[in-house]
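Hello,

I think I submitted the inosinic acid job twice by accident. Can you confirm which output corresponds to this input? Input:
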Amino acid sequence: MANTAVLGVQWGDEGKGKIVDLLAEDADWVVRFQGGTNAGHTVLVKDKCYIFHLIPSGILHEGKKCLIGNGVVVDPPELLKEMETLRREGIEVKGRLFVSDRAHVIMPYHKKLDALSEKLKGGKQIGTTLRGIGPAYSDKTARVGIRMQDLWHPQRLREKLEEVLPVKNLLIEEFFGEEGYELETLYQDALSWGRDLKPYVCNSHSLMREVLESGASVLFEGAQGAMLDIDCGTYPYVTSSSTTVGGIFTGAGVPPSAVDRIIGVSKAYTTRVGGGPFPTELEGKEGDLLREYGKEYGATTGRPRRCGWLDLVALRYVAWLDGLTEMTITKLDVLDAVDQLKVCVAYEIEGERTQEMPSDLELFSKAKPVYEVLPGWQGSVRGVTKWQDLPPQAKKYLEYIEEFLGVPIRIVSTGPDREEVIVR
Ligand code: IMP
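Support: Only one job matched these inputs. Its output is below.
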């Protein structure tokens, strides 16, 4: 298989887990390059439901190897928990799961600060997953982060904690009036994570070079989606990592030539969790219908997702940005529920019509969707596995998307099970 990237092209939760799971059969390696435990990939295998936050879902495939790259922020107790869950299911991770020694560690104070900062924002909450993602990436860029490799260097670890903890405690205790952290406890905990995880940690850049030079095929598994990208998304209502294609190169430590095929994954409609503008959002009954049919509740937080029509303006922006070579459309069957389909083909902002993605959030908040209406299929596409078996209206809907984006759709998911998929 060509080296392939699977990227979310909306606000996350596009159903990438299932597509990665499908493509992992033909890959030798599955690599994560950004995000942390904020991600939640649900994969259904024979009625068993697996939810992963850190470990690539490729681990379910016998013999496949997985890497958590340097661009990921790792919460060690959570990673150990996931490893234990897999072991209990009879899936051995030793020798198959690798973690970059350059990856940064999510510390307990990151999670606390995530929650406290959100509380402080009042009505302007980002609606983070409270997993410490923002504070961990902030420390990384402020150059005071703790990396995986620090966890088994006692002297270095202590020095780093001595540098960073007084500042965190000052903030937590003096500003927020909450209880801070004791250095010795954190230090001992971190050393114990290091002992448990050391067999899995490696110099991932050397590893990736070896893997690519050997001709093995790699699947790069994105988390979240392009509209949540720290640079290209709807800032500040974004996550703190690079969710677009560039994140692969810095977050896995590979050159651009390492990726041949770039698949953008989008639902057949749009969802978003957390705050921030969402022009095609449906409030009331229509939104509820999509939420119930699509079971749109977060895998990580259980929060109900905001639902709306497909936003082709945002998708076209991302298709260009990510250099998509193909698209995957998921949850087409959820649209069985509606009689008439709408797709957003332009925004109207302060009386002006545009097909450009505004960079200014204030303008984006004012964007009113201009819709094209397409007929629904008044039936069910659930479980369809062949393109020719789709109702003509469903084909028309997909062809409309392809044409608007100028990107071919090669995979269509028609239900939650592994087998409910069309591969063209
Ligand atoms: P954080 O990544 O926890 O800091 O959250 C920042 C924003 O990204 C919030 O709006 C979250 O709801 C959103 N977010 C983070 N991870 C995911 C995901 O996996 N799916 C969907 N939204 C996410």
